[in-house]
Specification:
single chain, 425 residues, alpha/beta, 2-enoyl-CoA Hydratase, Chain A, domain 1, Rossmann fold, 16 helices, 32% helix, globular
Amino acid sequence: MIIDFPYQNVKSLDIPDSYNPDILCLPDYDRSGSEEEVVRNALSHPIGSPALREIADGKTNVLIVVDDITRPTPVYRFISLVLNELEAAGVRGEHISFMVALGTHRFMTRDEMIAKLGIEIVDNYPVYNHDWKDHGNLEYIGDTEQGAPVWINRKVKTADLVIGIGSIMPIEICGFTGGGKILIPGLSGEKTVDEMHWTRIDVPSESVIGIRDNPIRVSIDALAGKAGLDFIVNVITDATNTIVAAVAGDMIEAHRAGCETALDVFGVKVEKEYDIVIADSYPFDNEFWQANKALDTAGGIVQKNGVIILVTPCEEGLSITHEHEIKEFGYRTHRKIKELVREKAVRKVVGVHMYQVSAAVVEKAQLIIVSPGISKQDAERVGFRWAGDVQEAFECALTVTDASPDIVVLKNSPKMLIRKELHNE
């Protein structure tokens, strides 16, 4: 069986038919019309809110917040529909600005802004990177329910209409992306991002992943509402990043409806665990900090002492903003990670990333990484095995598993929401 990967510089994998591997993909989901029709319909039927054109009437300082380049939301394909609503309300172009919700990611370049928003937006509107390092740009608005202080970009507080643009998909940290997460922690300060991520450590995964109303999301909703998120437009995209559904309106009610749809778009039934799990990280490919979303999925279905093969480009290496800490300490046991955070050797947000990765490939299985952007030296330095291509990785995996291993290939694994119906427990 020939397995192809969604990367030009990665060779195919040839798995002998005798191994009879399973192939898991995102389910097919039929959209009701073109991408434009899907988003237009959402804007025409807002959930829990008046129409955007009604809310925007009389506004003179509109801030549109969009997710950054690490998220695959194709904003450029539907942002004109949002602007049409503002125009219908009489909002003039000079009263509209955009801000990229970076959290603590690196600044986006102009070319990346064009790729995200389209050149018409970048050439005709102010587009700001959220400067999370400059405390003077931030304003304190309160604490989360877990006690994390929340500092938000001042431009949110000075705007008289804030619109959040993003997408909805499963995520380990807070159940689903989208909704109020565009502000909290998208436009938050460094301390807020650290503390909010760390509060997730002792909350069981089964209480969060794939569950919209969880303890972390409760805090996000409360603080994003307090910050002033007035309206959201969230899309749901399939394996090809085609918009198949969309919601618009109130940041809680519309997001809740979108998460229900996301369960059907991303839900994948799994009936057993596997000795070898082969996964790509598409479309979270720029750095390992993002690609590890594939490990959240793979780690959930790999057997104890099994092997995960991760295929990912990672052109920007392990992490643009946190590589020093990762290289210095590598991926350790959960106990050791907590110790490093307690001793302030690593930031809390880095500790959470390490915790997620180690849940799959330290505490449970081992990782063989195939990545043009991560050298063998760096991979081994942080505790991974490295292979020059997927075939080499597969042959290596066979030497450390049973003679007749159960094998699965996950395509588009970062977006998958695994629904376990295990029969081998």
